[in-house]
Specification:
382 residues, 73% helix, 0% strand, single chain, disordered N terminus, mainly alpha
């Protein structure tokens, strides 16, 4: 899946990132540039330079942010509250949500500062890691900027590629439960994974986040429906609230924090969403609307789920539903939401591979082809 914000002008700007970085470092070390009047650079409008015909608005970007944050972790938040204690977990959910939101805000703010400093329209996560070290105040660390870029690529690829593998297994497991409830015909996990691979690949072939936005909106509505249904059934069977412990143990608290951060964290897809926005200066509004919504849904599942089912909490929360029909419908809906989440998360490891493949292709194009052919190809693209 490739985002359509990779227009020709943007590709040219990103290909010149190393040149712009070297230019900035030369000007930074030049005394004449700092004191000679009339050579100051005008403010760089990175929004106007993007020229993206398929950019997303604030609503679509918020839908993507919510969907990227609400992954498989929300299915087990009631079990996480069981580990950490009811009120302790509730308070820490707010703290974790604030810290994650602030980290996302600092990441985007740093990226937008580097846009003006290097005069480029966008930066990926590895690009930002490289230029932040290369232009940072610690000059002794600048020579390691490429190493930081490669480390960022490796960690992002392992993180999101592993997450996508988990999503595919969870989708197959959910489908297996749905088939077992409606028919006696049984399929192995390997066959189910092969079956769902085709629609997942088709969904990942959507090239624009704008075209993927309707799927994210529908998935967000499904998540809200499942959360409200869970809250309704949990209230109907809820026990005395005083029977739920406020605090359990340090080990349980650590287990809660791991699940909570996994359920809320969307830092890896923050820059892709910002890079594809029509008005990236409004990304703060996306955070202000999206992250409270994410934290609220997580708190509802955790609080009401643990209040209702106590020490019998098991993941996913749909196993506690009393009706087989409702359970089957909710599991089918959750399969759809996990598929959309898979498509959003898959962009990150795919983009990393595409970066290195595309770089090799560009080198082949410029070195192996005749000059008149390259000129004609460039003219045709324009």
């Amino acid at each position: 899946m490739r985002l359509s914000n990779d227009s020709d002008d943007d590709i040219s700007s990103m290909c010149n990132l190393e040149f712009e970085l070297n230019q900035y470092l030369e000007k930074e070390g030049s005394t004449a540039y700092n004191v000679y009047p009339g050579v100051e650079m005008i403010d760089y409008d990175f929004t106007a330079e993007r020229q993206n015909l398929y950019s997303t608005n604030v609503l679509e970007s918020t839908a993507h942010l919510v969907k990227s944050c609400l992954g498989a972790g929300i299915l087990g938040m009631h079990e996480a509250y069981m580990y950490g204690g009811l009120w302790t977990s509730l308070g820490l959910t707010v703290v974790v949500g604030f810290l994650v939101s602030y980290s996302m805000f600092m990441l985007v703010k740093s990226a937008q500062t580097m846009y003006g400093r290097l005069r480029v329209p966008r930066l990926s996560y590895p690009d930002l890691a490289e230029v932040a070290i290369a232009t940072g105040p610690l000059k002794s660390c600048r020579r390691f900027s490429k190493a930081f870029r490669y480390l960022t690529d490796v960690f992002l690829f392992l993180n999101f590629n592993g997450t996508c593998c988990i999503f595919e297994i969870m989708i197959a497991q959910t489908l297996k439960q749905v088939l077992a409830s409606v028919t006696d015909y049984k399929l192995s996990m390997s066959i189910l994974i092969l079956i769902i691979t085709a629609p997942l690949i088709a969904l990942c072939l959507i090239r624009s986040l704008k075209y993927l936005a309707p799927f994210s909106l529908v998935a967000d509505l499904i998540i809200v429906t499942c959360v409200l249904t869970t809250m309704y059934y949990s209230i109907s069977v809820a026990a005395d609230l005083n029977k739920r412990p406020v605090w359990k143990s340090t080990h349980g608290l650590l287990r809660f924090l791991g699940i909570c951060i996994y359920s809320i964290n969307g830092i890896g897809v923050t820059l892709p969403i910002e890079n594809n926005m029509r008005r990236p200066v409004y990304f703060r509004a996306v955070l202000q609307w999206g992250m409270p919504f994410v934290v609220t849904l997580v708190m509802i599942i955790g609080f009401f789920g643990y209040w209702a089912w106590g020490e019998q909490c098991r993941s996913p929360f749909t196993v506690h539903m009393p009706s087989n029909t409702i359970l089957t419908i909710m599991q089918g809906f959750l399969t759809i939401t996990l598929g959309v989440t898979f498509a959003v998360h898959f962009w990150v490891p795919f983009r990393i591979i595409w970066h290195y493949v595309g770089r090799n292709y560009k080198n082949w194009e410029t070195s192996s082809q005749p000059s008149w052919f390259s000129f004609s190809l460039q003219s045709w693209r324009q």
